[in-house]
Design a protein that fits this description.
This protein has 276 residues and is α+β, with helices and mostly antiparallel strands. The chain contains 7 helices and 14 strands. It has a 7-stranded mixed beta sheet, with helices on both faces. It is globular and about 50 Å long.
Length: 276
């Protein structure tokens, strides 16, 4: 990886763009009952006009403000869906609406999430929850912040004192898919309690600021985790895939923790054949 650019300066330029995307989402919330919802291959996986409008607003500004960076955006409004629109050292990874089902059903736990990968490693993240009025920002060597205040992961060292989060994929009914229920059954008796709130990026940020002590999920795309993961690591936490490796960005699974609980969580939620 070549030398990093000035990440603090990039963060300052990108955060207002993400916030404007959040404003677009809120403008659609005011007409929620008239928002058109479609199926995106599965009945539970909703995509709305709000996703596309927010992505259009954000990507338009990113392409203008950061001409040298590629863009990987979920909905494919201005750039190829699921692909970077250009090769290069820097790549924006955008989810214009993480927590779409929450958004559609009037639950305020949704966000805009923008990560920056440099040489294949995520080095910057912005997660803006417009209805909650909360913004998380982080960059490598800069630290992690919630609304401008430095945040740190929890110091919980015992799993029976821990609040854990997870999620359940839209893939859960397909033959041969892991529905995450077996892992849930292993974790729930061992922890203080467990939450499932429906936004991977905000679950990661909640781990970063010590609300959760750990979080895991399967079948995730890069734009579901890129921004929140750097918030976790800059807050002093640990990120891995469910085998303890580094294939969490494109590998479809993630475990985030305060670090103290990571190895124990891996033994429980790792490959089920080896979980104890």
């Amino acid at each position: 990886m070549t030398d990093l650019p000035d990440l603090a300066a990039i963060l300052a330029r990108a955060e207002p763009i993400v916030r404007r995307g959040g404003d677009v989402l809120l403008s659609h919330r005011s007409e929620l009952l008239r928002v058109r919802s479609e199926s995106k291959g599965r009945r539970r996986e909703l995509v709305t006009a709000a996703d596309r409008a927010a992505e259009l607003a954000i990507v338009t500004e990113l392409l203008r403000e950061f001409e040298e960076f590629g863009v990987l955006a979920e909905e494919g409004v201005l750039t190829p869906q699921g692909q970077a629109h250009r090769a290069g050292e820097g790549l924006w990874i955008l989810d214009p609406l993480d927590g779409t089902t929450n958004f559609v059903h009037g639950i305020p736990f949704f966000c805009v999430a923008l990560g920056l990968a440099w040489g294949g490693e995520v080095v910057l993240g912005i997660v803006h929850a417009p209805e909650l009025g909360t913004t998380y920002c982080a960059a490598r060597g800069v630290g992690a912040y919630r609304d401008g205040v430095r945040i740190r992961v929890s110091r919980t060292a015992a799993l029976d004192d821990a609040l854990i989060a997870t999620g359940f994929s839209y893939n859960r009914n397909e033959p041969g898919r892991d529905d995450n229920v077996a892992r849930l059954e292993r974790v729930l008796p061992r922890c203080r309690d467990l939450r499932r709130l429906g936004s991977a990026e905000l679950d990661l940020c909640s781990t970063a600021c010590g609300i959760y002590d750990a979080y895991w999920e399967l079948y995730l795309a890069p734009y579901d985790v890129a921004a929140g993961a750097i918030v976790v690591t800059e807050a002093g936490g640990r990120i891995s895939d469910l085998s303890g490796g580094s294939e969490w960005l494109y590998g479809g699974q993630i475990l985030a923790s305060n670090g103290l609980l990571h190895d124990e969580m891996l033994r429980i939620v790792g490959p089920l054949g080896s979980a104890r």
